[in-house]
Amino acid sequence: MKFHVNRDVFSEAVSFVVKLLPQRNPQPILAGVLIEATDEGLSLAAFDYEASARTVIEATVDEPGTILVHGRLLSEIASRMPNVPIEVTAGDDGAIALSGGSARFTLASMPVQEYPAIPEVTGESGLVPAEEFATAIAQVAFAASRDDVTPVLTGVQLEVSGTQLNLVATDRYRVALRDIPWDGGSAAGDEGTSALVPARTLQEVGKTFAHGGDISISFSGAGDREIIAFTAGNKTVTSLLIKGNFPPVRRLFPEQTEHHAVVNTADLQEAVRRVSLVLDRSAPLRFTFAEDAVTMDASGSEQARASESVEAHLLGGDEVTLGLNPQYLLEALGAVRSEFARITFTPTDNANKLSPVLITSQTSVDQAGTDTFKYLLQPNLLLR
User: Fold this and answer.
1) Which pLDDT belongs to residue 350?
2) How far apart are CA 84 and CA 232, in angstroms?
């Protein structure tokens, strides 16, 4: 096999396909990148049985063929080659030579016949706006659990509902939800399609395809090998779905109530960061929402204390005091992406149970936001 390819194009393609691979893989063969040179160009792919990435780029192919080479090492080499076309040659002895300008590398090939088949997706598909999808992922995926003890909570649930795609994630202490437009073509009215996608994979998809126009999302497979595929331009990412029943958290979201506070998002973020400096790890921050301000109080070890007030507008109810996880609140405020945030105090029928707060976007003091982002956060018990 022998081909010539643009250095930047090749480097970007290799970087893309290895991005989803784990840093350490128990099977060395899965650390490889499969490169296939044909008369139509160059195909690069990586697969670890759970996620795959594939792209096709232009190249001048002198001798068609297929090679398997260590992915991360190839990515580092390609990114540091001189800015001239790269020549790649595979010899009969199993050595792979890369050269560009005066730089030359020789790598050992890996056995192609031992590499698993890259998943093919042939199921129903629909389109979502790439930028809006990437924003929705960033607003939701952080709320997924990082604890593998409960795998279903480490994913983001995607649900097709008519002309909308719903994204939901939870770690039991909070729930994040966002709806975006879905174009299912002739199947636009179909409902019931859902997929539980690992949050880590979905976050990489969002970063990679953020400026790709439209993203095609396809569902395929059955049983234990159900997969989802994301395609934009010449790039495709597939992911094995997480098996299990995602909790019905959507029903936890209450109807909007009039008892809420409106706060400048940036001002509240900065105050929370300052006051929480004295808090012990995992300790809640005390918030008191009054008619014209929200006051934060924190007590830490070694008699450290801090307090700060930020202008707020409390409407529809009495003063509220509660404890919130400062990091969870900061992540919600970062996801709101609006100048103001609305913090709604939800009602409860159980006087002994803390009621969650609902955080949504707010365009101005008097005008609610236009997006569909919702974040439900469970308060913490405060020590008297």
Assistant:
1) 67
2) 27
Give 166's contacts (C-beta < 8 A, 6+ positions apart): 157, 158, 159, 160, 177, 178, 179, 250
List the beta bridge partners of residue 288: 295, 321
Q: For residue 118, what are the contacts with CB-CB under 8 A and spacing of at least 6? A: 34, 45, 47, 52, 54
Q: What are phi and psi of 40, to 5 degrees?
A: -90, -10
Give me 377's structure tokens.
């956060």
Euclidean distance between CA atoms 128 and 188, whole angstroms? 12
Q: Return the pLDDT at 381.
A: 77
Residues 6+ apart with CB under 8 A from 358: 253, 254, 256, 343, 344, 346, 374, 375, 376
Count other Cβ atoms within 10 Å, centred on residue 252. 15
d(CA 179, CA 166): 4
Q: Domains of the chain, with CATH numbers?
A: 2-114 (3.10.150.10), 125-251 (3.10.150.10), 253-377 (3.10.150.10)
Q: Taking phi first (over 0 means left), then psi (-120 to 50 degrees means alpha), and beta for anything else, what does residue 299 get?
A: beta
Question: What is the tens place of the pLDDT at every residue in 87-96?
Answer: 999 988 889 9
| 200: amino acid identity, one letter | R
What does the angle CA 49 – CA 55 – CA 60 come to, to the nearest 5 degrees? 130
**Global pTM?**
0.91
Angle between helices 199-208 and 130-140 (to 10 degrees): 140
